TrEMBL record:
Name this polypeptide is given: MYND-type domain-containing protein
Native organism taxonomy: Eukaryota, Metazoa, Ecdysozoa, Arthropoda, Hexapoda
Main location: other
Gene Ontology annotations for the cellular component aspect, listed alphabetically: cilium
SUPFAM superfamilies assigned: Ankyrin repeat (SSF48403), HIT/MYND zinc finger-like (SSF144232)
Length: 405
C-alpha cells in the first residue's frame, strides 16, 4: 500500500470520527458507503467508531455501525472501557439494550474493575444500570420451550414465551408490581406452577456457570419464583376453602391476587408494612446460595441497627445502588413505579400509574385523603396581595428621602 493511500485512509478515518462527534448520521452513512470503509479501526486513544458513537449516546449511528459489521466487544481502549461502558455512561438505556441484543458482554470490566452497570450506577444513570442488570437474551428461553432428552412436553409452553420474557425482564421488582404483572401478562396466572418451576431452574442454572455465574440474576429468578409461589399457594388455599361453596374458582384468581396485593400494602399504625417486610426477609433467608456476595450484602444491610426497608434493599441488590437519588422522583404509592403520571384527583398529594393502582391503594388512602386535601389547599393559598396604597406611600417616602439627601 502506497504512502498516498495510507494518508487517504487516515484522513477518511478522521472524517468518520468527526462526523460521529457532530452527530452527522446521513453524512457518515454516505462516507462509509462511497469509500467502502471497514469500520473496525481505532483512534490514538484506542477508541473505535462504535465506542465514539456510544459515548455520544447516538443510537441511530450505533445501529448503522452494527449493520456495517462493527465488533461490539472489541476493546483496545487504554482504560478498558467497552462500547457498553460508554453507552452506560451516556445515559441512553435503549442504546444499552441495542448493544446487548447484539451480544455485548455485560460482565466486561474496565481497568479499575468496574462493569458497565456499576459505572452507570456510579454516575447516576440508574435506568442504564437497571437495563443492563435485567437484560436476558431471548434465545435463553429456547432451552425451556423445547422438549429435552426424554421429555414429552417442554418445561414452558411456547405460547407463554413472550409473556414470560416480559415477566423476567421487568425492572421494577416491587412485590405489588410483580403480582400485577402475573395478572396482566397473558397466560401466566393460569400456569403459575409451570412459571415457578422454570424460574427455580433458571436460578440454579445461573449459579452453575462457573466463572460466568451471575448471582444477581440467580437471586432475581429466586425472588420472582418465591412471589409466584406465594400467589399460587394463596389461590390453592382459596380453592380448597371455597370449592364446596362456590363450585368453581377459575374466575377468583384475580380476586385472590388483589387480596395478596392489599396484604402487601397494608400499614400498621406506626407506618410500617409489617407483613411485606417479614415476607421479604423470609424470601431472602430462603435463597440457597449463601456464600454469594449479593446474599451477604443484603443480610448485612437488613440486620444493621437502623435498616432500610426490605423492598429498597432487594431493589438495590437487583438493579444497583442509586448513588445519586433524584429528589423529585414521582413514585407510585401502589407499585413503586417511578415517574408515575397521575395524581389523586381529590387531594393531589399522592402519585399513581393509572386507575388500577389507585383502585388497589384506595382502601388505605381513603383514610387520609381528606386530611391531605386540606393540607394541600392550605399550601396552595396565595399570600395576600400587597396593598396598593401601602406600596405608593413607601415609594413616595423613598423618593422624598432621595430628594432631601
Amino acid at each position: 500500500m502506497s504512502e498516498e493511500s495510507d494518508v487517504k485512509i487516515q484522513n477518511l478515518r478522521k472524517e468518520v470520527f468527526d462526523k460521529i462527534t457532530n452527530n452527522q448520521t446521513d453524512d457518515l452513512r454516505a462516507l462509509i458507503n462511497v469509500n467502502d470503509l471497514k469500520i473496525n479501526f481505532v483512534d490514538e486513544f484506542g477508541m473505535s467508531p462504535l465506542q465514539h458513537a456510544c459515548y455520544k449516546g447516538n443510537k441511530e449511528i450505533v445501529q448503522m455501525l452494527l449493520d456495517q459489521g462493527a465488533a461490539v466487544n472489541d476493546c483496545e481502549h487504554k482504560h478498558g472501557y467497552s462500547a457498553l461502558h460508554f453507552a452506560a455512561l451516556s445515559g441512553n438505556s435503549d442504546l444499552c439494550n441495542l448493544l446487548m441484543s447484539h451480544g455485548a458482554k455485560i460482565n466486561a470490566k474496565n481497568s479499575v474493575g468496574r462493569t458497565a452497570a456499576q459505572m452507570a450506577g456510579f454516575v447516576g444513570n440508574h435506568s442504564c444500570a437497571s437495563a443492563i442488570n435485567n437484560f436476558i437474551p431471548k434465545a435463553n428461553l429456547d432451552y425451556y420451550i423445547k422438549p429435552r432428552n426424554l421429555q414429552k412436553e417442554p418445561m414452558l409452553h411456547p405460547h407463554l414465551a413472550d409473556s414470560f420474557y416480559l415477566f423476567i425482564t421487568q425492572v421494577n421488582v416491587h412485590p405489588v408490581k410483580v403480582i400485577m404483572n402475573l395478572k396482566k401478562l397473558p397466560g401466566l396466572i393460569d400456569n403459575l406452577p409451570m412459571v415457578q418451576k422454570v424460574l427455580e431452574c433458571m436460578s440454579k442454572k445461573e449459579m452453575n456457570k462457573g466463572a460466568d455465574a451471575n448471582e444477581i440474576m440467580s437471586f432475581k429468578y429466586h425472588y420472582l419464583c418465591y412471589l409466584t409461589d406465594e400467589l399460587s399457594k394463596s389461590i390453592q388455599r382459596h380453592v380448597s376453602s371455597n370449592t364446596e361453596k362456590d363450585g368453581t374458582n377459575e374466575d377468583k384468581k384475580y380476586e385472590v391476587a388483589d387480596l395478596l396485593i392489599k396484604k402487601f400494602l397494608k400499614y400498621k399504625n406506626d407506618g410500617t408494612q409489617e407483613y411485606l417486610e417479614l415476607f421479604l426477609r423470609d424470601l431472602v433467608r430462603e435463597y440457597s446460595y449463601r456464600d454469594t456476595a449479593i446474599f451477604r450484602q443484603m443480610v448485612a444491610t437488613l440486620t444493621s441497627s437502623d435498616p432500610p426497608s426490605a423492598v429498597s434493599v432487594i431493589s438495590a441488590a437487583i438493579n444497583g445502588q442509586q448513588v445519586f437519588k433524584d429528589v423529585e422522583r414521582l413514585i407510585c404509592e401502589t407499585c413503586g413505579e417511578e415517574k408515575a403520571p397521575k395524581k389523586c384527583s381529590k387531594c393531589k398529594a399522592v402519585q399513581y400509574c393509572d386507575r388500577e393502582c389507585q383502585r388497589l391503594h384506595w382502601f388505605i388512602h381513603k383514610k387520609n385523603c381528606s386530611r391531605l386535601n386540606q393540607s394541600s389547599q392550605q399550601n396552595d393559598v396565595p399570600e395576600s396581595a400587597p396593598n396598593n396604597e401601602e406600596i405608593t406611600n413607601a415609594v413616595t417616602s423613598r423618593l422624598q428621602n432621595l430628594i432631601v439627601n
